[in-house]
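pinned: reference chain
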Amino acid sequence: MKLSRYTQAGALFADALNSIRDLENLGYTKTGTPTVVDSPFGRAICFSTGSNFNLGTLTSGSAKTVLVRINYSGIATSIWNNSSAYLSVIADVLTSFGFTAPTLYVDGAVATAVDGGQWYTIGVTDTTAFSISTMVIGSIGSSIIEMRDLMLFDRVLSAAEILSINNSTAMDFMRVIHENYDAAGGLTYTPFSSAQITKIAANTKSDNSSLGLTVIQLAAFNAEYNS
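pinned: its structure tokens
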């Protein structure tokens, strides 16, 4: 699902990475068998044993910022590459190769340390533009990595902008309902449970003034859906 909020804000590419079918319908090609899993931010794509998506098949141009949410298994893995520049995690360290002057971010701050089994918003900025026409996301070898909310910008985002995106909550990225394709290609809908609503509220930053209203709306939706 495209993240229109960010494309409207100037992102070259922004996708929630919450549906394999959506990416395939857009014409992007996959290798292996990525799967869809749950995450604190809604559905995410899990790449394992070398599975990946080539997002460059219908994308062109250059970027200076890449941001994405990840949860990696602890085994060294690729995250994003364009055949000449790579963003990876090796031994719990976010690592870049092939960029000119990279600055690496973890959860909105300049950092490189990440732990396996935890979700982070990671990214890289570079004052020199890099191509996105051969963009590939996914795993290598036996690694497993879950990914969500990929964004690319044609400018170097400021530290404040990156922190703001990191602080965006599940509310900003989820639809009110889980949307999944069933085996027949139709849609099935499952409303959020009370426990999920509570979890969303717990993970929402204190500066989100619309939280109360949004949670009430979710609860009302569930009540109507289940009536």
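why pinned: Confidence is low (pLDDT under 50) at residues 1-8, 170-189, 204-218, 220-227. The first strand starts at residue 11 and ends at 15.
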